Amino acid sequence: MSQGGRRLPGVEHPQVVDPRHPLVERVRSLCLVLPEAVEVEAWGRPTFRAAKPIFTYVGASMDRPLSIVVKTDPEEHRALVQDDRFYGVPYFDRNHWVGTDLDATGTDWQLLAELIETSYRQVALKRQLAALDSPGAAERSL
Question: What does the pLDDT read at residue 113?
Answer without folding.
Answer: 97
